[in-house]
Task: structure prediction
Amino acid sequence: MTDTTTGPPRTGLRSLPDILRMRAGQQPHQTAYTFLHNGEGEADTLTYRELDAGARGRAAALAPRLGGHSAVLLYPAGLEFVRTLLGCMYAGVAGAPVQVPNRVRGLQRMRRIADDAGATTILTTTSVKRDLEERFGDRPELSGLTVIDTASLPPAPEGDWTGNEPRLEDIALLQYTSGSTGDPKGVMVRHDNLVHNAAETDELWPCAPDGTVVSWLPLFHDMGLLFGVVLPLWAGIPAYLMAPDAFIRRPARWLEAVSRFRGTHAAAPSFAYELCVRAAAEGAVPPGLDLTSWRIAANGAEPVRSATVRAFIETFSPMGFSATAMCPGYGLAENTLKATGSPQGQAPGVLRLSAEELAEDRVRVVAEDAGDAVPLVSCGAPARGTRVRIVDPVTRTVCPPDRTGEIWINGPCVAAGYHGRPVETEETFRARLAGSEDEGTEPHLRTGDLGFVHEGELYVTGRLKDVIIRKGRNFYPQDIELSAESAHAGLRPNCAAAFSVDDGESERLVVAVETDGRVLRSVGAGELRQDIREQIWDGQRLQVDDVVLIRRGALPRTSSGKVQRRACRQRYLDDELRGTATGEEG
Result:
């Protein structure tokens, strides 16, 4: 394979439109994408030829209207998003995928993104356009925006499209980070970033000709977009897509689709694997599933939990799932997506560290039965073109191997920066190491994540800004949250947020936990709070100053489902969280 540090990984393939055109010529009648209605029945399909014709038609219709300006892509799960995204790339329009708003808060976020991107046009479907007009037609957030139903655009023969070919350095899309403060930033992803990331992913987790992708991830999110759309197009293998809600309502649908369509590649955050384990424990997974085809179960986008990995393997190995198929990885939108990953064919690596030493930013491996052992799952090694360094965020010097620090990345997948934000781009994408002249001139991406490298593999320990400091020691909120979630069997995974607040005299630890009336009726709010405090004391030897019980779904989350701790902290300070749990007492 061509060195990924120098040019396009495959000769002549400079962009996704290049790849689509090649697929349409070489395998025109092969199904490229299939959308599953309710996660089960086949609702819509596209061959490569149909997709290329549809994308070119969108480009011919949109280019004169948009004149190269950005556009907001506001699509529910489905294949019209894929047509329009590729059509925008053909036309030189930087699309900004955004979640369809169902509340005013979501509409306000959409408008902030449109303003940040300099977009005055929303591209969407017939149903979403109608819903926007009926529900939000009188809202100021829609003022000055033109909403276009792309499915109703007049058909244009593909020969009508005569635009310029995208260049490697052109912006292919604006991937807006979910953000934790309500201030989303648009990552400028170039065409070469997409091609390089797809090539690196295919090299790490090979897509053989018999490969099949099965994905429920939202396509407006980086992980869903790269794994559900870009990778299968790059590799020339079919993708079966479903709506995220179909999975959340019944996680077994994902497993059933892998079994039914002989899925080889499927990715999700750690909480999704935990939901599948819970569904199996509740008898909600059909016993006849065949998961022997599943070669790559990519696990990322949030801390990968050792207990979840072990439970998923143990639960589904009787159905043919192999331990070597579980492939944890690490990535972020600012690096297009994947930065590191565990290779196919080996079980996930687990390292046990001393919790006491880790609280002091030190890495000391201990035995499994050590009293303060903390298991961390390896996120694998970087691709050959990507370089990962662990850096002291204050001194900007490389940390020794036995210390944790901020994860810095250099390589061909690092995006161009944040749209319209030169200062933040310089700080985040142009970070330079102190020290030698050679190191000092090499730009890096500062991820804001903490971790260390052990025997060439990356281990992620937390977020730089989320670390909770008590009495000079560091505590990672995900560990506190895991303890809180274990306080009662009725609490769901990913239902807690731990953060600190300063009352002017001291720093206080607050834990917000989502629950519902069923749990509260079984134990009572007071007892549940006490159970949570005790679990956190047992796990971290931390005293919790306040436990807030809130209704299910009330925690602010990113578009990928990660809890926004800083946004949760702000709502707590604004007194918007307290007393919202259904059936709370006392």
In short: The two ends are 64 Å apart (CA to CA).
